Amino acid sequence: MRSVEWNAETCELHLIDQRLLPAKFEVVVCRDQYETARAITDMVVRGAPAIGAAAAFGLAMTACRSKETNADTFIKEIETAAQVLNQSRPTAVNLAWAIKRMLRVVVPSKDVASLKTALINEALNIAEEDVLTNKRISTIGAELLKDGD
Protein backbone atom coordinates (compact mmCIF):
# COMPACT_ATOMS: atom_id res chain seq x y z
CA MET A 1 0.00 0.00 0.00
CA ARG A 2 1.14 3.53 -0.74
CA SER A 3 1.18 6.08 2.06
CA VAL A 4 -1.33 8.13 0.03
CA GLU A 5 -3.79 5.99 -1.90
CA TRP A 6 -6.89 6.90 -3.90
CA ASN A 7 -9.91 4.61 -3.97
CA ALA A 8 -11.70 5.48 -7.22
CA GLU A 9 -14.74 3.32 -6.45
CA THR A 10 -15.59 5.15 -3.23
CA CYS A 11 -13.96 8.54 -3.92
CA GLU A 12 -11.96 8.15 -0.71
CA LEU A 13 -8.39 8.88 0.22
CA HIS A 14 -6.58 6.30 2.34
CA LEU A 15 -3.59 7.55 4.32
CA ILE A 16 -1.14 5.51 6.38
CA ASP A 17 -1.11 7.25 9.75
CA GLN A 18 2.53 8.35 9.93
CA ARG A 19 2.19 9.35 13.59
CA LEU A 20 1.89 5.71 14.65
CA LEU A 21 4.72 4.16 12.67
CA PRO A 22 6.68 1.99 13.26
CA ALA A 23 4.89 0.69 16.37
CA LYS A 24 1.46 0.46 14.79
CA PHE A 25 -0.06 0.42 11.30
CA GLU A 26 -3.38 2.19 10.80
CA VAL A 27 -5.09 3.70 7.80
CA VAL A 28 -7.05 6.94 8.03
CA VAL A 29 -9.86 7.28 5.50
CA CYS A 30 -10.74 10.77 4.27
CA ARG A 31 -14.05 11.32 2.52
CA ASP A 32 -13.93 15.05 1.84
CA GLN A 33 -11.67 18.10 1.82
CA TYR A 34 -12.33 18.78 5.51
CA GLU A 35 -11.17 15.35 6.63
CA THR A 36 -8.17 15.65 4.33
CA ALA A 37 -7.30 19.08 5.71
CA ARG A 38 -7.56 17.69 9.25
CA ALA A 39 -5.25 14.79 8.34
CA ILE A 40 -2.70 17.25 6.94
CA THR A 41 -2.96 19.55 9.97
CA ASP A 42 -2.71 16.67 12.43
CA MET A 43 0.32 15.27 10.58
CA VAL A 44 -1.30 11.97 9.67
CA VAL A 45 0.43 12.47 6.34
CA ARG A 46 4.05 13.63 6.35
CA GLY A 47 6.63 14.55 3.79
CA ALA A 48 6.24 17.42 1.36
CA PRO A 49 5.35 15.38 -1.75
CA ALA A 50 2.86 13.22 0.15
CA ILE A 51 1.20 16.31 1.61
CA GLY A 52 0.88 17.74 -1.90
CA ALA A 53 -0.64 14.51 -3.19
CA ALA A 54 -3.08 14.38 -0.26
CA ALA A 55 -4.20 17.95 -0.97
CA ALA A 56 -4.64 17.12 -4.66
CA PHE A 57 -6.81 14.16 -3.72
CA GLY A 58 -8.77 16.43 -1.38
CA LEU A 59 -9.79 18.40 -4.46
CA ALA A 60 -10.38 15.20 -6.42
CA MET A 61 -12.78 14.06 -3.67
CA THR A 62 -14.62 17.34 -3.83
CA ALA A 63 -14.98 16.92 -7.58
CA CYS A 64 -15.95 13.27 -7.36
CA ARG A 65 -18.65 13.85 -4.76
CA SER A 66 -20.02 17.11 -6.17
CA LYS A 67 -23.67 17.17 -7.21
CA GLU A 68 -23.21 20.42 -9.16
CA THR A 69 -24.23 20.45 -12.81
CA ASN A 70 -23.37 24.07 -13.55
CA ALA A 71 -19.68 24.52 -14.41
CA ASP A 72 -19.36 27.97 -12.80
CA THR A 73 -20.89 26.78 -9.53
CA PHE A 74 -18.76 23.64 -9.63
CA ILE A 75 -15.60 25.72 -10.09
CA LYS A 76 -16.55 27.88 -7.09
CA GLU A 77 -17.00 24.69 -5.05
CA ILE A 78 -13.51 23.52 -6.06
CA GLU A 79 -11.98 26.91 -5.27
CA THR A 80 -13.60 26.90 -1.82
CA ALA A 81 -12.22 23.41 -1.16
CA ALA A 82 -8.79 24.63 -2.31
CA GLN A 83 -8.92 27.41 0.30
CA VAL A 84 -9.78 24.90 3.05
CA LEU A 85 -6.88 22.65 2.04
CA ASN A 86 -4.44 25.54 1.63
CA GLN A 87 -5.10 26.60 5.22
CA SER A 88 -4.37 23.14 6.61
CA ARG A 89 -0.61 23.75 6.61
CA PRO A 90 0.18 27.20 5.16
CA THR A 91 3.95 26.70 5.21
CA ALA A 92 3.89 23.45 3.19
CA VAL A 93 5.31 24.40 -0.19
CA ASN A 94 4.20 21.22 -1.96
CA LEU A 95 0.67 21.65 -0.68
CA ALA A 96 0.31 25.09 -2.27
CA TRP A 97 2.10 23.88 -5.41
CA ALA A 98 -0.23 20.88 -5.81
CA ILE A 99 -3.35 22.97 -5.28
CA LYS A 100 -2.21 25.53 -7.85
CA ARG A 101 -1.47 22.72 -10.28
CA MET A 102 -4.91 21.23 -9.69
CA LEU A 103 -6.63 24.58 -10.21
CA ARG A 104 -4.88 24.99 -13.57
CA VAL A 105 -6.93 22.10 -14.97
CA VAL A 106 -10.16 23.86 -14.00
CA VAL A 107 -11.02 25.54 -17.29
CA PRO A 108 -14.38 27.34 -17.32
CA SER A 109 -15.15 26.30 -20.90
CA LYS A 110 -15.36 22.62 -19.93
CA ASP A 111 -18.47 20.82 -18.76
CA VAL A 112 -18.66 19.50 -15.18
CA ALA A 113 -18.02 15.86 -16.15
CA SER A 114 -14.84 16.85 -18.00
CA LEU A 115 -13.71 18.99 -15.08
CA LYS A 116 -14.23 16.10 -12.64
CA THR A 117 -12.21 13.76 -14.84
CA ALA A 118 -9.44 16.34 -15.27
CA LEU A 119 -9.16 16.93 -11.51
CA ILE A 120 -9.09 13.24 -10.62
CA ASN A 121 -6.52 12.50 -13.34
CA GLU A 122 -4.29 15.37 -12.26
CA ALA A 123 -4.34 14.17 -8.64
CA LEU A 124 -3.40 10.68 -9.83
CA ASN A 125 -0.55 12.18 -11.88
CA ILE A 126 0.77 14.13 -8.90
CA ALA A 127 0.73 11.02 -6.70
CA GLU A 128 2.39 8.87 -9.36
CA GLU A 129 5.13 11.46 -9.90
CA ASP A 130 5.83 11.34 -6.16
CA VAL A 131 6.21 7.55 -6.27
CA LEU A 132 8.53 7.73 -9.29
CA THR A 133 10.65 10.41 -7.60
CA ASN A 134 10.98 8.25 -4.48
CA LYS A 135 12.04 5.28 -6.60
CA ARG A 136 14.69 7.39 -8.36
CA ILE A 137 16.01 8.61 -5.01
CA SER A 138 16.25 5.04 -3.71
CA THR A 139 18.05 3.87 -6.87
CA ILE A 140 20.60 6.68 -6.62
CA GLY A 141 21.03 6.05 -2.89
CA ALA A 142 21.52 2.32 -3.44
CA GLU A 143 24.29 3.03 -5.94
CA LEU A 144 26.16 5.00 -3.28
CA LEU A 145 26.14 2.10 -0.81
CA LYS A 146 28.76 -0.62 -0.97
CA ASP A 147 28.64 -4.07 0.59
CA GLY A 148 29.28 -3.75 4.31
CA ASP A 149 28.22 -0.07 4.57
Topology diagram in text:
Blueprint: E1 4-7, E2 12-16, E3 27-30, H1 33-41, H2 48-65, H3 71-86, H4 93-104, H5 112-144
Helix pairs in contact: 1-2, 1-3, 2-3, 2-4, 2-5, 3-4, 4-5
Kindly describe this structure:
- The protein is mainly alpha-helical.
- 59% of the residues lie in helices and 9% in strands.
- The protein contains 5 helices and 3 strands; from the N terminus they run E-E-E-H-H-H-H-H.
- The chain has helices at 33-41, 48-65, 71-86, 93-104, 112-144; strands spanning 4-7, 12-16, 27-30.
- The chain has a 3-stranded antiparallel beta sheet with strand order 1-2-3.
- A hairpin with a 4-residue loop joins strand 1 (4-7) and strand 2 (12-16).
- Helix 1 runs antiparallel to helix 2.
- The longest helix has 33 residues, at 112-144.
- The radius of gyration is 16 Å and the shape is globular.
- The model has no long low-confidence stretch (mean pLDDT 93).
In short:
With 149 residues, the chain is mainly alpha-helical. The chain has helices at residues 33-41, 48-65, 71-86, 93-104, 112-144, and strands at 4-7, 12-16, 27-30. A hairpin with a 4-residue loop joins β1 (4-7) and β2 (12-16).
- Count the beta strands: 3
What's the helical proportion of residues? 55-70%
Order of helices and strands: EEEHHHHH
Give, in spatial order, the strands making up the sheet with the most strands: 1-2-3
Low-confidence stretches: none
What's the overall geometry?
globular
Main sheet record: 3 strands, antiparallel
Distance between the termini: 29 Å
Structural class: mainly alpha
Instruction: Give the C-alpha Rg.
Output: 16 Å
Overall average pLDDT = 93
Count of discrete alpha- or pi-helical segments spanning 4 or more residues? 5
Strand content: 5-15%
